[in-house]
Write a structure and sequence with these properties.
Shape of chain A: globular
Number of domains of chain B: 1
Distance between the termini of chain A: 30 Å
Helix content of chain A: 10-25%
Radius of gyration of chain A: 24 Å
Structural class of chain A: alpha/beta
Helix content of chain B: 55-70%
Structural class of chain B: mainly alpha
Oligomer: heterodimer
Chain lengths: 577, 196
């Protein structure tokens, strides 16, 4: 790769700069490049080539140094004390997609889980792939309740962009005709198993406002010609997605948007490039570019463009903005409102129920479905029947049924030939449901720059002070009770509610720290994700979110990004930026 | 009573034939030297390995399909203790194995590998009951106390076996690329549990 940092100012000048190559940055790159902009994509981490760099993709459980990729406990303690809090992220199958905490520390006033990876593609390689649209129930909620700021957009503004991204990326699912979970452009949904089918029937006949649908997931079940043309294929239901998918069967930046952007000939993708500042020209009242610290040499270089997209992920984008101080913006770039870094949200989860299911011993399934069932929100839908007195907003359930495998034998008594015979037999059916609940924006849930703790690159870090409150705690009780109620209705046995320890960030849906809004006094971004005070900078990752809804947010980041890119290109044509 | 020659032969068989008769002789003499001999992680002594070998063989025996010893479970456990676990688990296993030999001595005046199969099973059933009760009694204890040694031995035997190539492919349905998910099939069509 050509070393641009040695080049002239002209060689370091582009039409657009995209900061970050994750799920939002990938979309910004694709859309801007396809619309003809010479675009520089800056990624702070290392280069990753689709397929070639998925080094564990084809490994068997016995090919790892320890079975199934278990990472030695000493290494976990040394490098991954925070990254391991999910219980599933630290494993040799995909450790290379997560930062080492000793290299990239942060400071917690109370526990906050910041789970992330620095490499081309970012968390689009390891994301959960659940893809749901927001509805007007979500976009209107803050205004209706007088919470936080009002969203400056409504569903109608985003609907065509949801169509656009779903069609191109490929989402499998079923249209349900629900106002709280709008229909979309779907490839065929994955199948229910026999227990889930029974559950769906029982729940839907007993609770008319509840629906059990198949999880809408960004996996190809019937790829389009356009998808196949960039090398993507049908999902093989390996459910080893976090290793990276050489089939390109689930959507990632590496396997989709960055390929499309590259094909235009307009993209320059530069890894190992840590953006430390947005450069602001006070006279022109514009951002002229970004300052970059080389992740390997530490050398600083400036890059210039007419338009800048900040897509570094909610908290990293916020860090860049807070770290960009100037005469005009002494409290951080675009931070006239003092909302930058505030209103941190996530989805609180790990409250629900699990149960055992009797019967169906002669039924099984084939494949490891990379999604589960979904029960869309059924609380506080604006009707008297769904109104809750103990909490506002709502939650959806993700879950599923399956038969246990050999792992169950560890907890049982017995050994010898009987145990050996059992290894070959599937165990009983079990089912679990976990609620994913909306977290409200609280102004004092915030992050700020900590100059006392430096990362491996010598840069200041973040401190987080974020907690869930009474509304979320009350909601968690209902997440348990309603799950129990449905499973008992379905006739399951040993139905047990659970409420496992949750701390903000654990959902890996952190968002809200540079929110959109109508009023520059109470928000950072306008209705097209432009920084109110500097309109040639767009922020379209999780930082932009004004409220959290209860559905997985990535699809909305992508739709907002495509919409903003379209806006930016048109504004450039009109000479407005 | 078995003669010394037979004992030596049997001890080396228990070790999967992986150590020499002279090493087995050392075991019989109560010698705990030779760390690293015939082991995967170089941590356990030959005597410790011999006891683990006997237990792994009882937990998942060879039948018409491979058993724990065929896939190298004792060496696997040694590798896990040396490279994956920490001192706490190493101590649990080592003191557990000492107790096993003390129990065997009390029962028959010999080390565990030299008990008859039935005698080994008798002791192991007692440990299995103990680990089951201990683990259940401590499910909500925080921080989690050290595991019971037999729980760890059993867990590692099952884990090592089920994640070995022979265990996964001979005893289970192993298909790394299954193709589109089929949600409702007769079990007979798949045949066995999925290994993954």
């Amino acid at each position: 790769m050509q070393d641009l940092s040695q080049g002239t100012r002209e060689a370091r000048t582009f039409d657009a700069i995209v900061v970050g190559s994750g799920i939002a940055g990938g979309w910004a790159a694709k859309e801007l490049c396809e619309k003809g902009l010479k675009t520089l994509v800056l990624e702070r981490g290392r280069k990753v080539e689709h397929g070639k760099d998925y080094k564990t993709f084809a490994m068997n459980p016995w090919d790892f140094r320890f079975p199934n990729g278990r990472t030695p406990l000493d290494e976990v303690e040394k490098h991954y004390q925070k990254q391991q809090r999910t219980g599933y992220t630290v494993n040799d199958q995909w450790n290379h997609w997560f930062v080492k905490d000793d290299e990239h520390p942060y400071t917690e006033v109370s526990r906050f889980d910041w789970i992330r990876g620095y490499h081309v593609g970012g968390r689009s390689i390891t994301w959960g792939r659940q893809s749901y649209r927001w509805s007007d129930l979500d976009f209107e909620a803050n205004a209706r309740e007088g919470v936080g700021a009002d969203w400056p957009i409504r569903y109608a503004d985003l609907a065509p962009w949801y169509d656009h991204v779903e069609r191109w990326m490929g989402v499998s699912g079923t249209n349900e005709g629900l106002p709280q979970l709008p229909d979309g452009v779907f490839q065929p949904a994955m199948e229910f198993n026999v227990v889930e089918k029974g559950f769906k029937g029982k729940v839907e006949s007993k609770f008319p406002e509840r629906r059990v649908t198949m999880g809408r997931t960004a996996h190809l079940t019937k790829p389009t010609d356009e998808q196949m043309k960039i090398g993507r294929g049908t999902c093989q239901t390996r459910n080893l997605c976090m290793r990276g998918c050489s089939f390109g069967a689930y959507f990632s930046s590496n396997g989709a948007t960055l390929i499309a952007a590259d094909h235009t000939g307009n993209m320059t993708l530069q890894p190992d490039s840590i953006v430390t500042e947005v450069i602001f020209d006070k006279t022109a009242n514009k951002a002229t570019g970004v300052r970059v610290q080389d992740g390997i040499t530490g050398k600083t270089t400036e890059y210039y463009a007419k338009v800048i997209f900040l897509n570094a992920s909610a908290l990293a984008t916020t860090w860049i903005m807070l770290h960009s101080k100037s005469d005009r913006f002494p409290n951080g770039f675009g931070n006239d409102s003092d909302e930058l870094g505030r209103n941190v949200m996530d989805h609180h989860f790990l409250a629900g129920a699990q149960a055992e299911v009797e019967g169906y011993e002669d039924r099984y399934y084939s494949g490891r479905r990379p999604t589960g069932i979904y029960v869309p929100r059924f609380r506080n839908l604006g009707t008297e029947a769904t109104k809750q007195k103990d909490f506002t907003r709502g939650y959806g359930y993700q879950g599923g049924a399956s038969r246990t495998g050999w792992q169950r034998l560890v907890a049982e008594m017995g050994f010898g030939k009987e145990l050996k015979d059992e290894i070959s037999e599937p165990g009983n059916w079990t089912m679990g449901l976990t609620g994913f609940g909306e977290m409200l924006p609280y102004r004092d849930n915030r992050v700020w720059i900590n100059n006392d703790v430096k990362d491996v690159n010598g840069l200041p870090t973040l401190t987080m002070d974020v907690t869930i409150r009474q509304n979320e705690l009350n909601m968690r009780k209902d997440m348990q009770a309603s799950a129990v109620e449905m499973m008992e209705e379905a006739g399951f046995k040993n139905v047990r509610p659970y409420d496992r320890p949750y701390a903000p960030g654990l959902g890996i849906h952190e968002m809200g720290t540079a929110r959109m809004g109508r009023d520059p006094k109470t928000s950072v971004l306008n209705a097209f994700n432009q920084v109110h005070a500097c309109t040639n900078v767009y922020v379209t990752d999780g930082a932009a979110m004004t409220s959290a809804a209860c559905v997985n947010p990535s699809l909305t980041y992508m739709a907002l990004t495509a919409r903003a890119a379209d806006h930016a290109v048109n504004a450039l044509k009109r000479g407005e930026l | 009573m078995l003669d010394r020659r037979e004992l030596l032969h049997r001890a080396s068989l228990l070790l999967g034939g992986a150590i020499s008769a002279s090493a087995a002789s050392g075991i019989l003499a109560g010698c705990v030297a030779m760390p690293g001999a015939a082991t995967g992680g170089g941590l356990l002594s030959a005597e410790e390995t011999a006891s683990l070998t006997a237990m792994a063989d009882q937990i998942i025996p060879k039948t018409d399909t491979p058993g724990a010893l065929d896939v190298g479970v004792p060496a696997f456990i040694d590798r896990m203790l040396a490279g994956y676990y920490q001192q706490r688990e190493r101590d649990v296993i080592r003191s557990g194995l000492q107790k096993v030999n003390a129990d065997a001595q009390a029962l028959r005046g010999v080390s565990f590998p030299l008990l008859t199969g039935d005698e080994q099973v008798e002791l192991m059933k007692r440990y299995d009951r103990e680990q089951y009760d201990y683990t259940r009694a401590n499910t909500s204890t925080t921080p989690a106390p050290p595991p019971h040694f037999f729980r760890l031995v059993k867990e590692l035997t099952i884990l090592g076996f089920c994640t070995s190539e022979a265990g996964a492919t001979r005893l289970m349905y192993y298909n790394p690329n299954p193709g589109p998910y089929r949600g409702d099939l007769p079990l007979s069509e798949v045949g066995k549990v999925s290994a993954l």
